[in-house]
Amino acid sequence: MTRVSLDERQVAAVGGGWLEERYYSSGGDSVRDFLSFRSVYEVNPFEVGANHSRERAAYKARREVLDAALGLAPLWRSPLLSLSNGELRRVVLAKALLRERGTVVIDGGCGGLDDDWRRRIRAAARALRPLGVRLCIADADPSAPRGERRDSSKRSRVAGACRPDRLAAPVVEMSGIDMAFGRRRLFRDFSWTIREGERWTLRGPNGSGKTTLFALITGDSPFAYACDVRVFGKRRGGEGATLHETRAAIGSVSSMCAAYEGISPERQLDGALRPGVRLLLLDEPCCNMTSAAARRFAHRVETWLGAHPRVASVWVEHRPERIPQMFSLRKTLPSDSRATERFPGLSLPGNGFGSRDDSPAPSCNRRESQLQPAPVRGLPPHTR
């Protein structure tokens, strides 16, 4: 039996690095490189004599199954750094299943994946059995494959639903955002206003842009300066509020921060629920938690927000039963943008954006023609 941690392999796949590197770098291994036979079986390129015929036959059979089940074909030419969190998780899962034989236990395999991809993973598990692979998902989520469920979550009911106040001051204002990468469009004339005291659930399929929206709000994405995004009434760049001052009023918890930096969601929440916070962003904080841990986490959030009624909050979660009842407002990203999220870098000469498939440079809003970002390579977090 082989046990695989997707969180660890997900970070290793992009070479460690720092969490927001995807927004400032490009290039590196593509999905094709990462899932090649040589990479999967760690074949020495200078090896002479061995042809690995048995391994190649097994690799080919499994790859055909996984290509169809996990939707890898559209991602084949993409750099790993350009993938959304859900896309990268599927690619890392595919690599684990391309090589291992016997029983493969995936730790947290369904965490961070929407319902459609959970069903596809179950189909992949059935298709891989005749090829000598028995897939088990050690997952706390109630949608894990049959036989691997632990328990289910129950919605917290400590406080009542949020009642929006249209006269409350806006905390976040997004207006007319158009974002496209090559011929693939992520947002089309997207607008959203979050007001004081509002509690939103942000939903959408993997790759629809949920994490990208958070990055526009926090300033982690450089496109925050090209799009019409106002946070606490001020637009990015030149309106009197520094990025540090803006972030000081935002508390955030992210499952990807837990994977990259080893800080558990519970510890992140300790820092997020601090005095002076006006906006709380929760990006799939419970995706790898047991149901009991998820309920405790939700109860803490709900209790704190109940004591701070003017704080706005947005929760991204694929399992709505895990979200407290007070998060009664919903924003759903369209499914037609599925698998189109790309995170351009600012390191390549020429158009200034990372691209491995010679597609046109990404466009963002109507100001993109005026935006000419300078080439930046390996920009560390403390210099942003």
Report on this structure.
Helix 4 packs antiparallel against helix 5 and helix 4 (53-70) runs antiparallel to helix 6. This protein has helices at residues 6-13, 31-34, 37-40, 53-70, 85-99, 115-128, 210-218, 243-248, 255-261, 265-272, 291-307; strands at residues 2-5, 102-107, 133-138, 170-181, 184-195, 199-203, 229-231, 234-235, 250-254, 279-283, 312-316, 329-332, 363-364. Strand 10, helix 11 and strand 11 form a beta-alpha-beta unit. It has two domains: 2-45 and 52-138, Rossmann fold (3-Layer(aba) Sandwich), CATH 3.40.50.300; 170-341 and 357-370, 3-Layer(aba) Sandwich (Rossmann fold), CATH 3.40.50.300. It is α/β, with parallel strands linked by helices.
Overall spatial form: elongated
* Termini separation: 44 Å
Mean pLDDT over the full residue set: 75
Helix count from the secondary structure assignment: 11
Oligomer: single chain
Strand residues, percent:
15-25%
Number of domains: 2
The helix content is 25-40%
Radius of gyration: 21 Å
Q: Uncertain segments of ≥5 residues (pLDDT<50)? A: 142-159, 336-384
CATH architecture of the largest domain: 3-Layer(aba) Sandwich
Major sheet attributes: 5 strands, antiparallel
Number of strands: 13
Based on helices, strands and strand pairing, what is the structural class? alpha/beta
| CATH-level-4 superfamily name of the largest domain | P-loop containing nucleotide triphosphate hydrolases
Name of the CATH first level of the largest domain: Alpha Beta
CATH topology of the largest domain: Rossmann fold
> What is the H/E order?
EHHHHHEHEEEEHEEHEHHEHEEE
